Each structure stands twice: as structure tokens, then as C-alpha cells.
Amino acid sequence: MASEPRPDVSVEANANANATDSEPLLSVRDLTVTFPTPEGPVRAVDRLSFDVGRGRTLGIVGESGSGKSVTSMAVMGLHTGAEVTGSVTLDGTELTGLAERELNRLRGRRMAMVFQDPLSSLHPYYTVGEQIAEHHRVHFGSRRAAARRRAVEMLAEVGIPEAARRAGEYPHQFSGGMRQRVMIAMALACEPDLLLADEPTTALDVTVQAQILELIARIQQERSLAVVLITHDLGVVARVAHEVLVMYGGLAAEQAPVETLFAAPAHPYTRGLLDSLPRLDDTDDVPLRAIPGSPPSLLTPAPGCAFAPRCPRAAAADTDTRERCTRLRPRLTRSGDHAVACHLPLGKATP
Ligand SMILES: Nc1ncnc2c1ncn2[C@@H]1O[C@H](COP(=O)(O)OP(=O)(O)OP(=O)(O)O)[C@@H](O)[C@H]1O
Ligand code: SF4
Ligand SMILES: [Mg+2]
């Protein structure tokens, strides 16, 4: 392991981690989401388990289609028409199977979500101040003037200059980065305990992306928020996450504290993601590295390891191991706070 090159990513997370309660705020156990489709059932998330404590950030990473958004929507109870099994508890309250009315009360108030595209979540005909104030009024029953004051306070807190004036403007009058700040203000207006952020910075340029990530990290620290940050970018995870869940084909491939994941990744897929990060010594004409091959079919999943057709580790192994990889699905095996689903994790000699 030690001889394998590491990408040039500095892991800053945990340096300023808050003290956490011993009980996780969010606890997900064996979460499985299956969509009925004309071609057959699609299992988009398969027996996923994770915890997020107060003041902690869990980064969920994986390629497109790996089940990141489906997971976050399932936590929020937003899947209609899908079969959702397993358990999701927020501060001890079981959310799966909860009546829609109860879920509505919790959404926004105890848990909130920020999406990649703020325009899809903001109403074009209302000012941003009205929208944040309305959100506050619905959940706290506050009077209009108080809700409006709170909206301006929130816009100021997320770094929008001249917040009182800008509260009277419409979403289209804001830049992409500022709109994302408005979404964060709206999500945090009701002081939730849990924030789910689904690719909140993907559409933004690098500088604005860094500002938004810093904003989320600051607010998280100040409020001891539990954060689930979904991204396909391990560089983003390195900046802000404390723990990381790597998903592949709807399954957990690897789970570890961020430092462990970057220093000693155990799953060949994680290794591939790390290797595809740009390096400091790259010259301009080096093409972006990508993991060869395509993501697995969720409609007709292979019996063995979902990563087997793309796995360089299996390709280099002996025939028996290769056969095991293609026939037998690896179980997620935990050693302390590091879990990996692989028959031949990195760090073990290749037969
Ligand atoms: N409504 C649906 N009906 C059927 N299948 C669905 C539905 N929603 C999601 N899926 C399946 O679940 C898979 C995972 O989707 P998801 O949106 O969670 O991916 P993701 O990891 O968030 O990807 P991206 O990085 O592109 O956002 C999809 O590839 C698709 O096969
Ligand atoms: S189980 Fe086999 S195919 Fe899957 S990641 Fe591990 S070595 Fe590769
Ligand atoms: Mg997604």
C-alpha cells in the first residue's frame, strides 16, 4: 500500500470537528429502495447502513447512477411509488412508514435538503425573502413581520450583501452562487438538525464552489448540524467530510473516516476514484483519467461483485479469485471504523 501513489489532495476535515453526542442523530439501517419499472424492478439502493452524528459531515461519493440521490430522497421520505425498506431514524424517531403529515412536519423543520439546481426549488414569482419567510411561518407559525425579519437575518448569515434589499428580489436576479446561498438560507431558516446537500456545488465555478463549501462547514460548526454531502467529487469530500461512504451500483463499497479513506483506500473502486483526481504535477495536456468501463446494470445485477468487470485487482488475480469475484457478491466487512465490500481488499497480497 505504502508504495502506491496518492493523489495531491489535502485532507482538512476533522481539524475543526465539534464534540459530538454519543448517539448518532441520523441512523440508517439496511435501507433498500426498489423502483418498479416496465422492464422489471430496479434496486437503486441495496441494504445501505450509515450513521451521522451532530456536528459531523458524511460525504457520499460515487459515479453517476450509483444511488446517491435516491438515498438522500429516501432519508427525506420523498419516494412515492418506490418500495422502501429498512430503517431511518432521526434523533430516535423512526421515519420509514411515518404518515405523510408527520413527515411533512419533520421536513424543513428537523431535516432540510439543498439541491444542485436552486432554480428548480425556488418559485420564480415570489421574492426570495417571501419564500424564506413563508417557510418559517409554516413551520413556526410566526407572524409575517417576524418571519420576514428572520428571512433577512438568514440571507445575511449566508453572506448575501445588502440582505434587506436583496430579500425583495426574485430568484432570477441572483447569480448561481448567490442562489445556492439563498437555498441554504431557506434550508436553515427553521434551524434543522440535519442538512442533506445533493451536489450543492456541481454547477458552480471552482471559487464559488469553495465559498459554498466553506459556508456549509461554518454553519455546520456553529449549529452542530449533521450534514450529508452528496457529490461525485472526492476533492470536495476531502475538504469537508469527516466520514465517507463510497457507493457503487446502489451498494456500499467502502465506508471510513476521511483520513483513512485517502491514506489507505481498501476498495479497488475507491482507488480508481482517487486515481482519477487531478494531480498537482499534471501538465495541461494530460487527459483526465477515468475508470475504464461503465457502471453496472441495476435491472439485471450480476451475481458476483458489481465492480468485477472493471476491477484491475481481480484482473491481476489468479483464476480462483477471479471466479470468486464474478460469482460471489462480497459482504461489507468491518474492521473498527473501516468497512469494505471486497474479496481482495487493497493492502492484502494479490494471489
Ligand atoms: N424514478 C425512478 N425509476 C426507476 N429507476 C430509478 C428512478 N430514480 C432512480 N432510478 C435508478 O436509480 C439509479 C440511481 O439514481 P440516483 O439518482 O440515485 O443516482 P446518483 O448517484 O444520484 O447519480 P448522479 O451523480 O447522476 O446524480 C439510476 O441510475 C436509476 O437506474
Ligand atoms: S471483490 Fe473482486 S472484483 Fe470486486 S472489487 Fe474486490 S477484487 Fe475487485
Ligand atoms: Mg444524483
From TrEMBL:
Family annotation (PROSITE patterns): ABC_TRANSPORTER_1 (PS00211), ABC_TRANSPORTER_2 (PS50893)
UniProt source species: Streptomyces gilvosporeus
Source domain of life: Bacteria
Domain ABC transporter residues, every copy: 26-274
Topology versus the membrane: Peripheral membrane protein
SMART domains: AAA
Keywords: ATP-binding, Cell membrane, Membrane, Nucleotide-binding, Transport
Main localization, broad class: membrane
Stored InterPro entries: AAA+_ATPase (IPR003593), ABC_Ni/Peptide_Import (IPR050388), ABC_transporter-like_ATP-bd (IPR003439), ABC_transporter-like_CS (IPR017871), Oligopep_ABC_C (IPR013563), P-loop_NTPase (IPR027417)
Family: Belongs to the ABC transporter superfamily.
Record's subcellular location: Cell membrane
Name the UniProt record assigns to this protein: Peptide ABC transporter ATP-binding protein
